[in-house]
Amino acid sequence: MTVDSNTNNSNDGEKGALHGIKVLDLSRVLAGPSCTQVLADLGAEVIKVERPHIGDETRHWAPPKFSDDTSAYYATINRNKKSLTVDITTPAGQKIIKQLIAESDIVVENFKVGGLKKYGLDYDSLKQDNPRLIYASLTGFGQTGPDAKRPGYDYIIQGLSGLMSITGPSDGEPHKVGVAVVDLFAGLQLTIGIQAALLARQKTGRGQHVDVALLDSALAMLANVGMNYLASDEIPPRLGNQHPNIVPYQVFAAAGKEHFILACGNDSQFGKLCEVLGVDWHNDSRFATNPQRVANRELLCSELSKKFAGQPRTYWLEVLDQAGIPCGAIHNISEALAMPQAQAREMVIDFAAQGSPVRALGSPIKLSASPVTYRTPPPQLSEHTESTLADLGYDSEMIAKLKADGIV
User: Fold this and answer.
1) Confidence of residue 95 (pLDDT cuts 50, 70, 90)
2) What mean pLDDT is predicted for residues 266-292?
3) Over pLDDT 90: what percentage of the chain?
């Protein structure tokens, strides 16, 4: 999908569900900015505050980068935003931030707990002047508890939360997920919390503090595996590509060591699988029901592996799909993004029409009446500093002095 800014906002509905909401984004790296990009995609005005001359750390996390020097990592979660550079450690910088907060609906920050208090930019200080303010904090461990002041990192939280203990081969070391999923989980949880606070504000007229932690988000995402432990007091094992509660539901190798996923979610699907394979295992007391298959996992999967090794992956994917048995190939990233379904759903967007070389992953949110919009590519550092300050009433001479003093 090539983005054309001239046709993106033809009516109020196409301006986005959050059009008219103003967000001051004090967050950086991945978790916080992933939240504010969702808000921006949904139509909110997002002003991203960055450090003068340095910016968000992810601007420097390259290669790879695009031809305009934008790092791919920064471009992942910073489209539809304005870039304002301010040194918030200075009184003049704090004044600018407070002026922006006074007219903002939402502040998003991911500083260490208490890190903004010394600048007068904590929630308790700001809500006095703006009681409608929604102040959203994303930290490693949350605003309360014995670990509240510890810094949080996705990789470490994957380990602490138990997520790594159930990821990777059963006979190997624990693995992290290939993407910083805890950061992204938490960013989505923060987005949900902010939207809930917006709805609550419509009723009460008052904002509130939204407190989301990486650890809490990761623990919640343990889902059925976490519940398995709570129900049994048995520590869940690491099963590689196998499912803890369903069999057969894993990766198998076809002829030529080509791998595919088989996902039999119920007894009916297993019966269809047996028909495809020409066996009567669905009538065998060891395999007839899912609990029996879980109990005899190794035996059944060993026999299935022998069967699947006899034909190429294309054969199995075709016959299984025709039989209504869930299955799928394991794509690399190029293959995944080239899928006709991914293209039809506009999951790759191109800012070339706006003079930017950036291509980005699209939003998965599809709204019929107020769709997501892709208005601007990721901003260059300080691209909107002068215009933002001018909107606050700073004239050219004042702005020049702020620049000379290193404030912006």
Assistant:
1) very high
2) 96
3) 95
Read off the amino acid at residue 173.
E
Cα radius of gyration rounded to whole Å, the chain? 25
pLDDT at 11 over 60: no
Cα distance between residue 88 and residue 55, in whole Å:
13
- Distance separating alpha carbons of residues 176 and 51, to the nearest angstrom: 31
Q: Which residues pair with 65 in a beta bridge?
A: 71
270 close to 264: Cβ distance less than 8 angstroms: yes
Q: Residue 1 has what pLDDT?
A: 83
Per 3-state DSSP, what percentage of the chain is helix, strand, and coil (rounded to 5)? 40, 15, 45
Query: What is the pLDDT, as a whole number, of residue 3?
Result: 78
Count of CB atoms situated within 10 Å of the CB of 30: 24
* Residue 108, φ and ψ in degrees, nearest 5: -115, 130
Chain centre distance of CA 225: 21
- Report how far Cα 376 is from the mean position of its chain's Cα atoms: 20
pLDDT of res. 86: 98
Tell me the C-alpha to C-alpha distance, in Å, between residue 88 and each of 34, 117, 152, 321, 407.
22, 12, 22, 57, 8
Element housing 156 (H / E): helix 154-160
pLDDT at 6 exceeding the cut of 70: no
- H or E stretch covering 84: strand 81-85
CA end-to-end span of the chain: 35
CA distance 243 to 370: 38
Positions annotated as catalytic residues are 183
Which of 106, 349, 96 is CA-nearest to residue 208? 106
The tens digit of pLDDT for each residue in 163-221 reads 999 999 999 999 999 999 999 999 999 999 999 999 999 999 999 999 999 999 999 99
SS3 395: coil
